[in-house]
Specification:
By secondary structure, the chain is mainly alpha-helical. 70% of the residues lie in helices and 0% in strands. The protein has one domain.
Length: 155
């Protein structure tokens, strides 16, 4: 499972690069937020898990993601290719209109895109597992969404 610290570091590095290159603090902050804010869906999902089980939240259980397998479903509503596509399209539309918030919005989108890329690399859910439409189609079944990667050994 991709650890939150990876997204915080990525957001800080990307935000720092934006600030260094463009001297735009707003864009740097929005880029950093784009890297980490989508993980709030993990808090929502874990909170619902604890409410349903009537159990107290435990930091260790939350951080290692055991609750996904325990409940058998994976929703993570803020993680989706569809969101990234909509953000990119919104950036294009804002750019055409010459909106003053375009740079910050594009920085947020870049941060979100980096978050998605890091998750694709660091998690075992594969490309289709990050499609909201696919997750709905398989009824959020964690085993179908995150098919475990296996290493095939050759003799």
């Amino acid at each position: 499972m991709m650890k939150p610290i990876a997204h915080v570091v990525s957001g800080a590095v990307m935000g720092g690069a934006i600030w260094a290159a463009a001297k735009n603090m707003d864009a740097a902050i929005w880029c950093g937020l784009g890297n980490v804010i989508s993980d709030t869906d993990h808090l929502l999902e874990y909170g619902m898990y604890c409410l349903i089980r009537k159990s107290c939240p435990r930091l260790r259980e939350f951080l290692n993601g055991e609750y996904f397998s325990a409940k058998g479903t994976l929703m993570v509503v803020f993680h989706g290719h569809e969101h990234l596509l909509m953000l990119v399209l919104a950036c294009v539309c804002l750019g055409w209109q010459g909106s003053p918030g375009t740079v910050s919005f594009a920085a947020f989108t870049a941060g979100y895109g980096m978050h998605m890329l890091l998750d694709l690399i660091g998690n075992d859910c594969g490309f289709k597992g990050y499609s909201i439409l696919y997750r709905v189609a398989v009824k959020f079944n964690e085993r179908k969404i995150c098919e475990r990667k296996t290493i095939k050994r050759t003799k």
